[in-house]
Amino acid sequence: MKKKDKAADQLLPLNIQMYLLGVMVWFVLPLLFYVPLAISVLFVVLCFARLVLLMLGIQSLSRWILVVLILVVTALVYRNLGTILGREGGVSLLILLMVLKSFESKTRRDWHLLLQIQLLAMGVVLLFNQHFWVVLWVLFDLWLFLSVLALTCGVRSYRVLWQSAKMILISLPCAIAVFMVLPKADITRSSEAMFDQYTRESSERQIGRTGNASNTLEAGKVGQLIQTNNLVFNAEFDQPAQIQPKDLYWRETVMGLNRRGVWYAIEKTSFEPESEEYPVQRHTPIGYQLFLKDNKDRIPALDYPLAVGADQERWQWKAGYVLRLNEPADGWQQIHLQSALSDRVGQNLTVSERQYYTQLPKGMNLQTRRLAQELAARSHSDEDFVQHVLAFFHQGGFVYTLSPRRSDHWKNRTDFFLLDGREGFCEDYADAMVWLARSVGIPARIVTGYLGAEPHSNGKFWQVRGKNAHAWTEIWLQDKKIWWRVDPTGAVSSERIEAGITEALPKEETASLQSSAPWLDKYVQSGQFYWQRWVIDYDHKHSKTVRTWFKTHWIAIGVFLLLLGVAGWWYRRWRADSVLPLNQGWRLLAVVLEMEEEDWAVMGPEEVKAVLIQVNMMTPQLMVLLDQYIAWVYAATQLPPLRQQRHWLRQLRREVARIQKASG
């Protein structure tokens, strides 16, 4: 016991400590992208300072200096994030305390403790990102962790790498079996329950980074989203043959209030009982699954979702007929929905709701109001008015572009668009349509979300990207008591509706939307989709399906396992026959003595016997086995039968195991 304690307290060589410091930086590297920039910079500075101290021969700092540094980094984390708990706060504090721990680490025991903390940091990466490539990163880190751990214990480097890889490969089948039988718990929801308020704020920040739609709409916002090709979500339809991209209006947020030219989402949290919205079904409902990421509580459901589906207990309707998750969370979400694929939703507006959907800021866009009065004078109904507005767009020389001319003054921005600029994209046309309708007392609102989708090359699922971001309008028809979806963009650019954004704009405006390696993207996207479906979203329902499949195909599985066992037995026999047992035994002695290949190649049996005696590993039985080896290899005219050689090898293995056990 004293010997082990002495070994644990032994100082590690300088090069090993520097290597361990580099490994720590490698483990933490993915986390630096998810914490505030100030935290990342401080981590790098502290690591560099530790490296300089090691090069100067300073193994550790005074305890009081470390205490001061701990207080400083804790205060910095709290100042940047407002907490030291939760996901980002806890991780920020963890990585900084790790590097501070390295300032007092000098012995093998110290670095082993730090390595165990780094093992926790490796797993924390999966709380931020569960992408397939991140999992491969974690597996590589695990291999590196085992290798470093063995290296600090004195195991030679060439053996460390291979043995660590073998340990991971051997454990993978067992890990996969456990994963399939015992599905994972919902870590995201558990952390949400622990740090609910903070996590929601973190989700809002993440939405800002990824470019998803927000609760406001102002000039240029949708255009910024359109110019990104980032994946927003995947969709899998029950009957994909019935799908036309032009019918896919993914409804996410409804804007109803305008202040100083900026549209704001409806603030009401639920329906009023006398004016509940309901879809007017015009087509056979379709079922589909959404796989979306970092969307807070928003669900971009197709117009219009129905109150059915396997996951209906997970979401609820909000005013504007939008869906919201009951438990908002970061990370990937899989949601089952059904929609009517209709352009109409029924609602009997109350007096207060009519006032809400017809209000406009005073003193703004006076020319737009006069134009609306002129169009209304030629109209016989609200529907006829809408048709006149669409004809005005279609015949008025309007252009669909992502770089329109705009007025610098918020008071007449819509006036300039309608009468002077006549250039814009979806949000400009939606804004103008609502201003025109409300100017003559017709309730109207803006809906933001996404239009269309691209089928993946394998035809199994569809993808919606940032370039699919879109804004359209809904006009309330009093005589029919319905909201009617009207997309004024189609009056100017039918290509945007029918064929997508890349066909509606010049190539110079869509250059950023084209992939530089489409053949690679195809496999990456497909792999990510199935990784999400069969690994990330693997739950008890999937587990039951897998168990049912095993019960149904147990005969085929049994035959496969039998053939696999026979193949393994044959391989072992073939390997044993291809490598003589005497040679295997000789190599076993090299492993026991930890000899390099080049050193072992020049050693004879007598020299090996001398080394075994020198290190106190020689026993009478081992001496007999070595003498037998010398007699067969050097004295006999031919080697003994394989059966006799295998018996000798079994005896040698037992004796070596007994010696190693006795030496501790």
Please give a structural write-up:
- The protein has 664 residues and is of the alpha+beta class.
- The chain is 55% helix and 13% strand.
- Strand 9 (315-318) and strand 10 (322-325) form a beta hairpin.
- Helix 2 packs parallel to helix 6 and helix 14 crosses helix 16 (426-439).
- Mean pLDDT is 80; it is low at 186-212.
Number of strands: 19
Radius of gyration: 35 Å
From the spread of the alpha carbons, the general shape counts as elongated
Q: What portion of the residues fall into strands of 2 or more residues?
A: 5-15%
Structural category is: alpha+beta
Instruction: Please give the largest β-sheet.
Output: 9 strands, antiparallel
Q: How many DSSP H or I helices? A: 27
Rounded average pLDDT? 80
Terminus-to-terminus distance: 11 Å
Query: In percent, how helical is the residue content?
Result: 40-55%
Low-confidence stretches: 186-212
Which short descriptors sum up this protein?
19 strands, 13% strand, single chain, nine-stranded antiparallel β-sheet, 27 helices, 55% helix, alpha+beta, 664 residues
Summarize the topology.
Layout: H1 2-8, H2 14-28, H3 37-55, H4 63-81, H5 86-102, H6 108-128, H7 132-152, H8 157-181, H9 187-194, H10 196-210, E1 216-217, H11 221-226, E2 231-237, E3 249-259, E4 262-265, E5 278-279, E6 286-293, E7 298-299, E8 301-302, E9 315-318, E10 322-325, E11 332-339, E12 344-346, H12 351-356, H13 366-377, H14 382-395, E13 399-400, H15 413-421, E14 423-424, H16 426-439, E15 444-451, E16 454-455, E17 462-465, E18 469-477, E19 482-486, H17 489-492, H18 494-498, H19 501-504, H20 518-536, H21 540-552, H22 554-578, H23 581-592, H24 597-601, H25 605-614, H26 620-635, H27 642-662
Parallel strand pairs: 13-14
Antiparallel strand pairs: 1-4, 2-6, 2-17, 3-4, 3-8, 3-15, 5-12, 6-11, 7-10, 9-10, 12-19, 15-18, 16-17, 18-19
